[in-house]
Design goal:
Number of helices of chain A: 7
Helix content of chain B: 25-40%
Strand order of the largest sheet of chain B: 6-7-8-3-9-10
Shape of chain A: globular
Radius of gyration of chain A: 17 Å
Distance between the termini of chain A: 30 Å
Structural class of chain B: alpha/beta
Oligomer: heterotrimer
Chains: A alpha+beta (about 170), B alpha/beta (about 250), C mainly alpha (about 575)
Number of helices of chain B: 7
Structural class of chain A: alpha+beta
Largest sheet of chain B: 6 strands, mixed
Chain lengths: ~170, ~250, ~575
């Protein structure tokens, strides 16, 4: 997989995308801030103590941050990247823009948005689940769908109506 | 410092409960002022009555003696110029984010077009653009609180009251949200004019506030009002920060 | 049942095609089916009218009791008493009252039937509203106050949505109960008073009178189909929709999408396109209403004195009517007791004891079969998947519809000993009580955490020990809830069961309070006072049982098992 121009990391294969389905933007940014406060680099144990969260809960957040290119993990040490420094100094709207470019490159996200674009109409939850299940299995498909909706909404590329369970594309406001 | 009247004046407010003929004093002789561009945190041990104080300021409760004046007049709960953010978010589960944020505007008979666009503005300002039609159950804790904040800010309040707004959130989300609130605070175009926040975390108070009101254990009295002059953004690892935390801690025990 | 939406459409089309073919081949039966359909519509409309009335009453009453503490202290005990009154005791006199006050027009009968059904639904729903509102989280109420949400908006955005889950749930229960009373009232109207109105209940009654088994089966079958149709296309979708209004337990947990309730019922048609079309069409109406209402609202807000005056007038009117009704009732009662007692009044105590005995017997018999069956169903997942739908269908047939069948069966079995009336009464009471017990016990056993059952297996708890230590404690709260409801149903069933007319003959038990009440109503001579005394006796027994038997047991059980009951 080629390096995408926007992140420091090569795009990861699908199976590794599980972490971002259980984690919120606030937590990832909070982690980055916490590492920044202690100088930009620290080992996991220190961070765990600083934020008073045990490793079980911290793990998925670290994974997600790594996936999105905000944190480098080397032998139990966490270091923030240039990208995350950029994000730290950005305001709320700019942060969204930066994350939007990252999310748009995630293969599974691309796949679903392409599907929606080709169909030219809103997709039902069933249809999207069907498309994802083939690659990640039924058990994880739900989580992925939720993550898609969550991140898609956050970066304002996706519109989801939970009543009628229809997913559609939208243009971001900024 | 202009000679303008303070936004909020608390004058010798006390609160007691009477049960079985006995008097339980919760608050005793609280007096302080809140002026424009004040960011005040009230800290104190559990049970010191700080939440009760906040509820009296907002108008949900009344002091047994003393008075609380907002813009020169006794407080009324429905006054849109005081807004509140709740510890448990208090979002209506059957309303979308947009509907929740619009709630206060709807109650004050603001026309639909206007309240829709105002609400959308503030939803965007707290970083929730894209979630307008989501329901609270689809949101994480941090996001729910953002809705609560947007709902409070959309009223253009002069005073924003917050009751331990981050205590129901995990540490990372809380820190992230604190920073974003500071970002909003430093933008003079966005209300409110003043913030009054209750918290049990001294760290948080020193991180956010210009002035800290330290309270004693029950019955709650003001021990001291400290002015924190650290420049923002504040770093919790700096020794000066620790210094302040230690001092406030010693005041409230 | 794993039908998908796609499979439903061809199935429906197939059924319609089948119906058309049958109609063409056999016009007579088509006509019969058409008549039945019309009767079904009549009965269903009565139910709907009663339900709407109940909703309006319950929401108003429940909200008033919940929002005003002092009012509540006085409204809720009234509701309590009203709930304990066995409704059927009042029906015959109520029927005559409405009929004559409408100058003998059939509208009077309809009103009476609807009124009866209303009384079977309204109290329960009102309680649901009250409970939903009194458990409203404080922070939501505070938020509403802080943001200025008052009066009508507060009702629309806070109180009403908060009651929706309970409303839907209680509505479903009320309808089940309501069918029972619908059939019973159509019966009674068709019976000795000869005020029959078209409907499924009357149809079944007529078939019973004629001894026509085939028609009888048709009638009962149609009723069952109607109940099932409503359940599938109205109640299930409604309860899925009402999930949206359920409050979350925690404040700051992780985000989660909708859980299993949506999943299980996903195959039901939800017609998203129809709904969005409807909401698009209705939107201008709603907007118009809102815009029109705003100036009125503003006027209201700026004239608080007007609002206060209106509220005072409301309250005063209500109090005046209440005082009047209570005074009339008390005077009437005094009149009865001061005058000479009717001759048969001496039989009342014996009658009460006899009926009590009958119910106790039926209760024991019901427990004897429901507990083992429930245990079997719960411990055999394959069996339960088969058995549950079957049981639900059978249970949805109101016991009153089965009277003719039960009576015929009794005559067959014990006719030789002349005990058919007693046996029939016993069976009918059994039928009325057993489903409440069965389903509550199943729910109670199901609520036993799976790992407890596994632990019991691991520790080798079998047979009696397992029952004593695990199952019985687990089902106690639900058993109690079910028993209270079952006994309530039993009393009402007895009123109709102790005096039945079938195939031209009247079957009645030797002694029984239901018999006395029915006798006093139908005997034609002036038995008004006997009727009043018998009904009073019944009410007293029910209330006494409630206070002296059920309440203390519940208290002890909830302390012992440290669980919340009801």
């Amino acid at each position: 997989m080629p390096n995408s121009p926007h992140t420091d990391e090569p795009s990861k294969p699908l199976a590794d995308m599980h972490p971002i389905s259980k984690v919120s933007v606030g937590q990832i940014l909070g982690l980055v801030e916490a590492i920044d406060e202690v100088g930009g680099s620290a080992d996991v144990a220190t961070i765990s103590q600083e934020v008073e969260m045990d490793i079980d809960r911290l793990g998925p957040i670290i994974d997600a941050a790594e996936l999105l290119g905000f944190v480098k993990v080397e032998e139990g040490d966490l270091t923030i990247t240039d990208l995350s420094r950029k994000v730290l100094h950005a305001n709320i709207r700019e942060r969204k823009k930066i994350i939007r470019e990252i999310i748009d490159d995630v293969p599974i996200f691309r796949q679903v948005t392409d599907m929606a674009r080709k169909a030219g109409r809103p997709l039902s939850r069933e249809e999207v689940l069907g498309a994802i299940t083939g690659q990640v299995g039924t058990h994880q498909a739900e989580d992925f769908f939720n993550a898609l909706v969550y991140w898609g909404r956050y970066v304002e590329l996706v519109h989801y109506d939970s009543e009628s369970e229809q997913l559609s594309l939208r243009a971001p406001s900024t | 410092m202009t000679d303008v009247r303070p936004i909020l004046e608390v004058r010798h407010a006390s609160r007691s409960y009477f049960e079985n003929g006995k008097e339980f004093r919760v608050l005793e002789d609280i007096s302080f002022d809140v002026r424009e561009r004040d960011f005040i945190c009230v800290v104190g041990p559990s049970g010191c009555g700080k939440s009760t104080l906040l509820r009296e300021i907002v108008g949900l409760d009344r002091p047994t003696s003393g008075e609380i004046l907002f813009e020169g007049r006794p407080v009324r709960a429905e006054n849109p110029r005081i807004s509140m953010v709740f510890q448990s978010f208090a979002l209506f589960p059957w309303l979308t984010v947009l509907e929740n944020v619009e709630l206060g505007l709807e109650a004050h008979k603001v026309p639909e077009e206007e309240r829709r666009s105002k609400a959308k503005n503030y939803i965007d300002a707290v970083g929730l653009a894209g979630f307008e039609n989501a329901y609270p159950r689809e949101l994480s804790g941090g996001m729910k609180q953002r809705v609560g904040i947007a709902r409070a800010l959309v009223m253009d309040p002069v005073l924003l009251c917050m009751d331990e707004p981050f205590s129901a959130l995990d540490a990372l989300t809380a820190q992230n949200l604190r920073d974003e609130i500071l970002q909003l605070w430093t933008n003079p175009e966005i209300p409110p004019s003043a913030v009054l926040m209750v918290t049990h975390s001294i760290d948080e108070a020193v991180y956010l506030a210009d002035r800290i009101i330290a309270m004693s254990p029950r019955p709650g009295r003001i021990v001291k009002i400290e002015v924190v002059d650290l420049p923002r953004p504040r770093n919790r690892k700096e020794p000066e920060f620790y210094g302040w935390v230690d001092e406030i801690y010693s005041l409230i025990v | 049942m794993a039908l998908t939406r796609k499979q439903l459409r061809p199935l429906a089309l197939g059924l319609v095609a089948l119906a058309v073919v049958v109609a063409l081949l056999d016009p007579a039966s088509a006509l019969e089916a058409g008549t039945l359909a019309v009767l079904a519509v009549y009965s269903t409309i009565r139910m709907f009218l009663a339900f709407v009335l109940s909703l309006v009453f319950a929401i108003a009453y429940g909200t008033a009791a919940a929002t005003n503490k002092r009012l509540g202290e006085f409204l809720i005990p009234i509701l309590d008493i009203l709930q304990s009154v066995p409704i059927l005791g009042f029906f015959p006199p109520a029927l005559l009252f409405f009929y004559y006050s409408m100058n003998g027009s059939p509208v009077g009968v309809e009103i009476a039937i609807i009124f009866l059904i209303f009384t079977s639904m309204a109290w329960n729903i009102a309680f649901g509203v009250y409970e939903a509102l009194t458990t409203l989280p404080a922070d939501l109420q505070e938020a509403a106050t802080v943001f200025g949400v008052r009066d009508w908006l507060r009702f629309r955005r806070l109180f009403f949505p908060a009651t929706i889950p309970r409303l839907v749930y209680n509505a479903m229960l009320s309808w089940t109960v309501g069918w029972f009373y619908l059939v019973a009232s159509e019966y009674i109207a068709s019976g000795p008073l000869s005020l029959s109105r078209p409907g499924l209940g009357s149809y079944i009654y007529a078939a019973g009178q004629a001894g026509d088994v085939g028609t009888l089966v048709l009638g009962i079958g149609t009723l069952t189909i109607v109940v099932l149709l409503l359940d599938t296309f109205l109640w299930r979708p409604l309860s899925v929709w009402s999930e949206r209004y359920r409050m979350e337990q925690t404040g700051g947990g992780e985000a989660r999408q909708q859980g299993s309730t949506y999943e299980r019922l996903r195959w039901l048609p939800r017609f998203p396109r129809v709904r969005s079309e409807l909401s698009k069409r209705l939107a201008p109406l709603i907007h118009g209403w809102n815009r029109a209402a705003t100036p009125l609202d503003r006027y209201y807000v700026s004239h608080p004195k007007l609002v206060r005056t209106v509220r005072w007038a409301d309250l005063t009117m209500f109090l005046v009517i209440l005082i009047f009704v209570v005074a009339a009732g008390i005077l009437g009662l005094i009149g009865v007791f001061l005058g000479p007692l009717p001759p048969l009044a001496g039989e009342i105590p014996a009658a009460v004891v006899a009926s009590l005995g009958r119910l106790a017997l039926a209760y024991g018999a019901a427990l004897a079969w429901t507990i083992p069956v429930a245990a079997w169903v719960v411990h055999n997942p394959r069996a339960s998947r088969l058995a549950t739908p079957v049981l639900e269908v059978i249970a949805s047939i109101p016991a009153t519809a089965l009277f003719p069948v039960i009576l015929a069966f009794s005559v067959l079995v014990v006719g030789a000993f002349g005990l058919e009336a007693e046996f029939a009464a016993f069976l009918i009471a059994l039928f009325a009580m057993q489903w409440y017990l069965l389903f509550n016990i199943i729910a109670g056993m199901r609520s036993l955490p799976g790992d407890m059952r596994e632990a019991a297996k691991v520790f080798g708890l079998h047979g009696w020990a397992y029952w004593k230590r695990v199952l019985l404690p687990a089902i106690t709260p639900s058993l109690l809830t079910g028993s209270i409801t079952a006994w309530g149903a039993g009393w009402n069933a007895l009123i109709v069961a102790e005096y039945i007319s079938y195939s031209g003959t009247v079957y009645h038990v030797g002694a029984g309070i239901g018999y006395l009440i029915a006798f006093a109503t139908y005997s034609g001579t002036d038995q008004g006072r006997l009727l009043l005394l018998s009904v009073l006796a019944l009410i007293v027994v029910v209330i006494v049982m409630n206070k002296l038997l059920w309440r203390p047991i519940i208290k002890r059980a909830s302390q012992r098992f440290r669980i919340e009951i009801q």
